[in-house]
Amino acid sequence: MQIPRIQISQQYTKIGLSTTEGKLSIEQPKAELNLQQDDTKVSMETEKSSLEIDSTRAWSALGSSKLIEMRDLIAQSAFDISMQNIAEIAQNGDRMMEITNHSNAFADIARQNAFKDRPVQVTAEPSYDNVDIQYAPSVIHTTVQDGKITFDPELNSPRIQYEAGKLEAYVTQKNAISFSVVGGNWDASI
């Protein structure tokens, strides 16, 4: 006798997945610096140098002085000569008063005065240092005005684009259970 059996068949669910990838794009535009620079200003002022050459004494020593200077030289020379003459007259008076001296003072004084040269000086005294030179160097005044830098940056935000990905799940095979009786026939009667 064959006993019937119960046969169970089971079918599992099969799931399929479909994906679409997400996309992320990031762009960063450069920042704009907006720099502005004012020029540095330099101003210079120069005082002229001066050179003064005074050759009056050199020309006077050569006898080519101005009339006023020549007049002053002659007056000074005449004054000096008159002072020398006063001194000589006083000396000669002292010589003539000396009776004890057995020399002929009057004849000696007459001989000296006869051949005496009394030059009047119309030129200045020659010297290596008769030309006066004065030099004042130039002076430079410098003024610097600093330039300025203006900095005004504009920051640009990043551009972000995101496309979300998709995940789709679907059933490719449904689950199922089936029962069936396999085997002999069984008649049972009571």
TrEMBL record:
Any one Pfam family match given in the protein's UniProt record, by short name: DUF6470
InterPro entries referenced in this protein's UniProt entry, alphabetically: DUF6470
Name of the molecule in the record: DUF6470 family protein
Natural source organism: Paenibacillus chitinolyticus
